[in-house]
Design a protein that fits this description.
It is a single chain. This protein is mainly beta. A hairpin with a 2-residue loop joins strand 10 and strand 11. The strands form two sheets. Strands 4-3-2-1-10-11-12 form a seven-stranded mixed β-sheet. A five-stranded mixed β-sheet has the order 5-6-7-9-8, with no helix packed on it. Helices cover 11% and strands 32% of the residues. The chain is globular and about 40 Å long. It starts with a strand and ends in a 12-residue tail after the last strand. The protein has one domain: Purple Acid Phosphatase, chain A, domain 2 (4-Layer Sandwich), CATH 3.60.21.10.
Length: 197
């Protein structure tokens, strides 16, 4: 039986807006658990997710006082990195990952060495960039669901969320665009709505 994980990151609540779009909660109604890639800001948001499904959250710079934001307290649902066995796969969750090679200090290997030492991962879910991404690098499926509120760091508007589906030793990911009426598959080839504003 397939395990479905709801993916969200960089919600920036209440910085982006007072409440998260209700479409996000609706989209996650039938998931088995939720991964948040960090930059929640106010950890009270995790309580809303936990009413739907178990929540695992990466600690991002938005929880550590960057830019004068309040430092968020310790919370058992929040860690700098998680490693979870989901069906037959090992899945990592953290905030910062270098997927595109950016010199010797910005590589996927360097990120894994920092956040997942001595781990062999099949999937990594992350956030930080606010840019949606599904890419296999060195045999690892790397997934960033983007931001539901600040897509590509634009001003507050409908952004994206994602899903990770795991069936035995097989994983697939998808990204979805938030709309007025719910969500729809993200069109990777179209001009995204936030660029049309």
């Amino acid at each position: 039986m397939t395990t479905r994980i709801g993916l969200v990151s960089d919600t920036h609540i209440p910085e982006s807006q007072k409440q998260l779009w209700p479409q996000v909660y609706k989209a996650f109604e039938d998931v088995d658990c939720i991964f948040h890639g960090g930059d929640v800001h106010d950890l009270a948001l995790l309580d809303s997710f936990e009413e739907i499904a178990p929540i695992y959250c990466a600690r991002g710079n938005g929880e550590d006082g960057t830019g004068g934001r309040p430092v968020q307290p310790e919370d058992p649902r929040v860690r700098y990195s998680w490693v979870l066995d989901v069906e037959d796969l090992r899945v990592g969750l953290t905030h910062y990952i270098s997927v595109d090679e950016g010199g010797p200090n910005f590589t996927l290997k360097k990120s894994i060495d920092m956040y997942f030492p001595d781990e062999t991962l099949d999937v990594i879910v992350f956030g930080d960039t606010h840019v949606e991404l599904i890419k296999t690098v060195n045999g690892i499926l790397c997934v960033n669901p983007g931001s539901p509120t600040y897509p590509h760091n634009y001003d507050t508007t409908y952004g994206t969320l994602g899903f990770l589906d795991i069936d035995g030793d097989s994983a697939s990911a998808s990204v979805w665009q938030i709309t007025d009426s719910g969500i729809e598959p993200f069109d990777w080839d179209a001009t995204p709505p936030w660029q049309k504003r």
